[in-house]
Specification:
The chain is of the alpha+beta class and 141 residues long. The chain has 4 helices and 6 strands, in the order H-H-E-E-H-H-E-E-E-E.
């Protein structure tokens, strides 16, 4: 009985570790997609990483924005041309599971552009929704 319990515990821990690794890889894929879209001056493509819902919350230098459409419009106003979007890269400092199907990611953004470079930090919350990882909240400054 004791051996069976140890085997069950081992399988559970191994399965959890594999799932967490797969989750992290999938989240990093979304972030890479965002970098690529941004670097092609494709803000709408970049926004595909976010939940397309009024429940999205984005908190930046202009305060709190509610909703995907409003967030998109703010990005378009703030980054109207390729000279403003430039080249984006992320540095991921921490990725931690909050609960099953939710993670927070802390990191840095680096924007090299003709309109002047910009760097900052972010804290984003990902949730797995209908099999896809989406950002549901973003604090960037």
């Amino acid at each position: 009985m004791k051996k069976l319990f140890v085997l069950f515990l081992f399988i559970t821990v191994t399965t959890f570790a594999q799932t967490a690794t797969e989750d992290r890889k999938a989240i990093l894929t979304v972030l890479k997609m965002q970098e690529n879209a941004w670097n092609q001056n494709d803000i709408e493509g970049f926004m595909q990483g976010y939940i397309k819902s009024d429940s999205l919350k984005f908190y930046g230098s202009s305060g709190l924005t509610h909703g995907w459409k409003n967030t998109l419009e703010n990005y378009k106003k703030g980054y109207p041309t390729k000279e403003h979007t430039g080249n984006l890269s992320f540095t991921i400092d921490a990725m931690t599971q909050i609960e099953e199907g939710s993670y927070y990611v802390m990191g840095q953004f680096h924007l090299v552009r003709e309109a002047g470079n910009a760097n900052g930090v972010f804290l984003i919350i990902f949730r797995k929704i209908e099999g896809e990882w989406k950002i549901i909240a973003d604090l960037s400054c």
